[in-house]
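User: My collaborator sent over this chain with a note saying "see what the structure looks like." That's all I know about it. Can you take a look?
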Amino acid sequence: MAYEVEKTDAEWQDELSPERYKVLRESATERAWTGELLDEHRAGLYTCGACGAELFKSGTKFDSGCGWPSFYDSVNPDAVELIEDKSLGMVRTEVRCANCGSHLGHVFDDGFGTPTGLRYCMNSLALGFSAEGETAESETPAADAPAADSTAK
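Assistant: Without extra context I'll predict from the sequence alone. Here is the result:
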């Protein structure tokens, strides 16, 4: 698929911390319970950590107990790309940013009690966050955030 934002691997490596590059461009997963945005409870907007595209509103975030930030819906159907993932001996649905193709996490149909029944299980390292009323375009997790595992979730 052609994306609005396309860069070479070298360009992404220059722009992203090694930890973010591993998650966003190599589909790694940060360790559960380590993500900076897991316990973020302010109103605001979650964006792609690579290109800044709008992905999730804080009102759709919920505590799923899985150890990663979870949302029940994206800002609009075109914000994310869903791809069948047959890695690790199972079939899952990978979630990518529809603007740049970066790996964000996976979506599952076990979001019980949510309006959609979905759980978008996202890596904090794959997201930026901008609190309502802030002037900065986005806050992103620290570059020295916990290292990503190569095991995808």
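A starting point for your reply to your collaborator: Helices lie at 9-15, 18-26.
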